[in-house]
Amino acid sequence: MEERRLEVFSAVARELSFSRAGLALHLSQSAVSQQIAALELELGGALFDRSRRRVRLTPAGVALLNRVDHLLGDFAEARRAVAAARGAVEGELRVASSRTVGTYMLPHLLAALGRRHPALRFEISIQNSERVLQTLLAGQADIGYVEDSVTHPGVVLAPLREDELLVVAAARHRFAQMREVPLHDLVAEPMIVRERGSGTRRISEEHLRAAGVRVADLRIAAELTGIEAIKAAVETGLGISILSSATLAKELTLGTLVARRLQGAGPMRRSIFAVSATGGTELPAARELTDALAADRHPSGSGPTAG
User: Fold this and answer.
1) Whole-angstrom distance, CA of residue 111 vs CA of residue 107
2) Does domain 3-86 have CATH number 3.40.190.10?
3) Residues 49, 55 contacting (CB under 8 angstroms)
4) What fold characterizes domain 91-160+277-295?
5) What are the two backbone dihedrals, phi and then psi, of residue 192, each rounded to the nearest 5 degrees?
6) In the 8-state DSSP scheme, what is residue 241?
7) What are the structural domain ranges in the chain?
8) Neighbour tally for 181: CB within 10 Å
9) Which CATH code for domain 162-270?
10) pTM for the predicted model, two decimal places
11) Alpha-carbon separation of residue 271 from 141, 147, 210, 285, 288 (angstroms)
12) How far is Cα 144 from Cα 286, in angstroms, rounded to an integer?
């Protein structure tokens, strides 16, 4: 079966309309009809019932629909395996990344990679570290990036670089007058935290426990998923937060936020990891992107501000 015919079948089955499928695929209705007719001839039976005013799947069409995504996936995997064997940086690169890495560390690297390899396409999924692992295990990504040391027999981790977490407060907050934030002052403030499953949240809580802070004693004012939403909430004075230095460049430059280390606790450092499926094929594009991330020294809010 030809891949293009399966793509056309999938579009018609999804839309239940030859004309709408044609629009989605940038094909004329007659071209769609020709592709479907050729597929039906190849399979020896009708896939759609066209005898009524509406297009309907036949039992044979339903049977094919249950397999078409898998079949198209096999075509894609075959192309990727051949490209990897040739060392070609082309086709589709599926990246699953944590929010910190995906939003603040990868964009300029992806742009540079795309300029070097115009035949390369990106599919980027930005999630928390827990979801990145799940995406890789489901075979829906070629490479993942997290700032959390995950453990699972189905994946392999490679440390790339270090990142530092800092206490973040509004520029007018009392922490702006401090060089470092004492632990008792941190506990006294309302805090805005990331969602559960976030590497930033897990690692910051581990550091606080190691410093003698009972996480249960923290005054949680809000739990937010997006880093930009957290920074905006901190700017308005809703509370303080703990975020990666890599996420703060714009706000520190504009002077809307201040970033401080904890007093007597040591830097809250963590590693950025590349994550890949055990036994999977390493695409040349994934290797090149990973090497670029490991070597990158792109400016970011990489340390506490003087205030």
Assistant:
1) 6
2) no
3) yes
4) D-Maltodextrin-Binding Protein; domain 2 (3.40.190)
5) -110, 125
6) E
7) 3-86, 91-160+277-295, 162-270
8) 22
9) 3.40.190.290
10) 0.69
11) 21, 6, 17, 22, 19
12) 9
- Run means of pLDDT, 10 residues per run, the chain, 307 residues: 89 91 91 93 90 86 90 77 71 90 93 92 90 88 86 87 94 95 93 88 90 89 93 96 94 96 87 88 88 79 52
- The per-residue pLDDT for 245 is 93
Residues belonging to the chain: 307
Q: Do domains 3-86 and 162-270 have the same CATH topology?
A: no
The answer to whether 200 and 244 have CB atoms below 8 angstroms apart is: yes
Q: What is the pLDDT, as a whole number, of residue 226?
A: 87
Q: Say which residue the tokens 């403030």 belong to.
A: 189
Query: Which has the closest alpha carbon to 205: 178, 181, 187?
Result: 187
Q: How far apart are CA 137 and CA 149, in angstroms?
A: 16
Q: Which residue, chain included where needed, has tokens 């018609």? A: 12
Residue with tokens 């989605």: 24
Amino acid making up residue 292: A
**Per-residue pLDDT at 301:** 46
- Tokens 């939003």 belong to 103
In this prediction, residue 75 carries a pLDDT of: 79
CA nearest to 305, candidates 252, 268, 264: 252
Contact assessment for residue 159 and residue 273, using Cβ atoms and an 8 Å cutoff: yes
Q: Looking at residue 195, what is its pLDDT?
A: 87
Closest CA relative to residue 152, chosen from 278, 290, 273, 281: 278
Q: Provide the 10 A C-beta neighbour count for residue 7.
A: 17
Q: Rounded to whole angstroms, how far apart are CA atoms 51 and 149?
A: 58
Buried b (16+ CB within 10 A) or exposed e, 232-251: ebbbeebbbbbbbbbbbeeb
